[in-house]
């Protein structure tokens, strides 16, 4: 069983990339959240090799071994194969998926993933035990409690889920300060969203 590949990214397209490892080109299916880029000399992807129905070997690549664990847990659910698992992780970043399951945010997960509520309920029920062994780092500059509370406040004010998450992520990416309380983060988010109007 292969654990990871370390090599040069020679091609990247939507949903896949090719990594050259000592002259061998490996085609891997990846999510759009992957940060690897063409020309990266030492790209490292943790992989899962799966034999398809047509006898071909498919490789799936993940930058974090915990993301691969979530992928494995998803495809272990009845009716959800590797393609559907990757599609879910392409719509909802793996750590966000964990957060939504841990906070039992079924409606948000259903909207983000494009899956029906029954399927989402099954995923939440079956995946939750797997998450006991998955430790999530705190988001840069903010803890999970503040993140969740801020999102809930903004939702009550009528902002859409996608707008809220996009704004919150942009704030954390651009600023180097730490948000330790919900009120401060809510005020900042409202100020940023007010500038767009």
Tell me the layout of helices and strands:
Blueprint: E1 4-13, E2 16-21, E3 24-29, E4 43-51, E5 57-62, H1 65-75, H2 82-91, H3 94-102, H4 106-113, H5 117-127, H6 144-156, H7 161-174, H8 182-196
Parallel strand pairs: 3-5
Antiparallel strand pairs: 1-2, 1-4, 2-3, 4-5
Helix pairs in contact: 1-2, 4-5, 6-7, 6-8, 7-8
Question: How would you describe the overall organization of this protein?
Answer:
- With 197 residues, this protein is α+β, with helices and mostly antiparallel strands.
- It folds into three domains: 4-63, OB fold (Dihydrolipoamide Acetyltransferase, E2P) (Beta Barrel); 66-133, 5' to 3' exonuclease, C-terminal subdomain (DNA polymerase, domain 1, Orthogonal Bundle); 144-196.
- Helices cover 46% and strands 19% of the residues.
- The chain contains eight helices and five strands.
- β1 (4-13) and β2 (16-21) form a beta hairpin.
- The longest helix has 15 residues, at 182-196.
- The protein is globular, with a radius of gyration of 18 Å.
């Amino acid at each position: 069983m292969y654990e990871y590949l370390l090599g040069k990214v020679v091609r990247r397209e939507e949903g896949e990339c090719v990594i050259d490892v000592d002259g061998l080109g490996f085609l891997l299916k990846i999510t759009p959240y992957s940060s690897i880029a063409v020309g990266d000399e030492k790209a490292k992807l943790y992989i899962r090799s799966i034999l398809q129905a047509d006898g071909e070997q498919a490789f799936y690549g993940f930058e974090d071994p915990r993301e691969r664990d979530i992928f494995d847990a998803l495809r272990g659910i009845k009716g959800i194969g590797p393609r559907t698992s990757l599609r879910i992780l392409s719509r909802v970043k793996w750590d966000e998926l964990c957060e939504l399951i841990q906070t039992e945010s079924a409606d948000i997960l259903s909207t983000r993933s494009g899956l029906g509520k029954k399927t989402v309920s099954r995923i939440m029920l079956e995946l939750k035990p797997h998450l006991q062994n998955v430790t999530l780092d705190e988001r840069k500059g903010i803890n999970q409690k503040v993140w969740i509370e801020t999102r809930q406040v903004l939702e009550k004010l009528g902002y859409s889920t996608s707008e809220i998450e996009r704004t919150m992520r942009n704030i954390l990416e651009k600023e180097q300060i730490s948000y330790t309380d919900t009120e401060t983060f809510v005020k900042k988010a409202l100020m940023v969203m007010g500038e767009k109007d």
